[in-house]
Amino acid sequence: MNLKRLLFILGVISSGIVSAATFDTDTFLTQKKENVILTFIGHGSLMLSYNNQIIQIDPVTRYADYSTLPKADAILITHEHGDHLDAKAIETLTKKETLLFVNEASGKKLGKGSVMKNGEKKTILDRITIETVAAYNITPGRENLHPRFNGNGYVLTMDGLRIYIAGDTEDIPEMKELKNIDVAFLPVNQPYTMTVSQAANAAKMFSPKVLYPYHYANTAIEELKTILKGTSIDVRIRKME
User: Fold this and answer.
1) 50 has which bridge partners?
2) Residues 6+ apart with CB under 8 A from 46
3) Cβ–Cβ under 8 Å, residues 73 and 55
4) Which residues pair with 26 in a beta bridge?
5) pLDDT, tens digit, for every residue of 29-72?
6) I need a labelling partner for 114 at 20 to 30 A (CA). Which of 78, 103, 179, 197 fits?
């Protein structure tokens, strides 16, 4: 077990949260030097820990045994496809106080959840701001894979630290409106989302400090680092096939 994984496990145990999972993690600091821990579960599934609270993004049972992970204070669903929306995982992670935020189609499938549409913004758990942004396909012939105005990307702000989770999208023009993004997750697996060159173009639109390609399946993802070499963007590859 590497040191980073050991520290994560010790951290969750010390906070009263016991997890059998040993996923890779990265830690970022907010403006007040508070830790935000990102856990890379797989594909489009992420876990975020901040201020003793847990946020799960697109939890899916095929990527983790969620019974071994802490219950969520909030769950964010980008859209209704089966590799992002999993009722079983949501049920496993839900406690009485759990907040569930979904796009409209996911809400209809689940029969629950607070629907957020593109362009909405709200503060949750006292200190976390969520903004929903557009996520859709633009390549001719692929528009129906992820139609415009359906799915959500999310920007989470915690004490000045801004994390963008794109969901399933291509390099859409709305990305030019993203500001001051510290950490970004961009999907890279055409025909469903982006090619490597599209992902590079997307990143150049808003220049995140750190970029994690995710949802990348069999893509030759190291090429993204090559294309963005020489920019200010720190491209980090994690196990997010």
Assistant:
1) 36, 53
2) 38, 39, 40, 56, 57, 58, 165, 185, 214
3) yes
4) 38
5) 999 999 999 999 999 999 999 999 999 999 999 999 999 999 99
6) 179
Report the Cα–Cα distance between both ends of the chain, in Å, rounded.
Answer: 21
Domains within the chain, CATH numbers bracketed = 3-228 (3.60.15.10)
Structural tokens at position 144: 């129906």
Tokens at residue 151, please? 């799915």
Question: Alpha carbon of 17 to those of 5, 25, 59, 237: distances in Å?
Answer: 15, 16, 18, 27
Beta strands in the chain (DSSP E): 25-29, 35-42, 45-50, 53-57, 74-76, 99-102, 114-115, 121-124, 128-135, 151-158, 161-165, 183-187, 210-214, 234-235
Claim: this prediction has a pTM higher than 0.70: yes
Count of CA atoms in the C-beta half-sphere (13 A) of 15: 15
Q: In terms of C-beta density within 10 A (0-12 exposed, 13-18 middle, 19 or more buried), how is residue 237 classed? A: middle
Give the residue from 66, 67, 71 showing the smallest Cα distance to 52: 71
Query: 171-194 pLDDT, tens per residue?
Result: 999 999 999 999 999 999 988 999
At residue 43, what are phi and psi to the nearest 5 degrees?
60, -110
User: What is the rounded distance in angstroms from the CA atom of residue 146 to the CA atom of residue 188?
Assistant: 14
> Sign (positive/negative) of CA torsion 147, 194, 240, 153?
negative
CA 58 to chain centre: 7
Q: What are phi and psi of 34, to 5 degrees?
A: -95, 145
- The answer to whether 8 and 25 are in contact (CB under 8 A) is yes
Element (H, E) at 108: helix 104-110
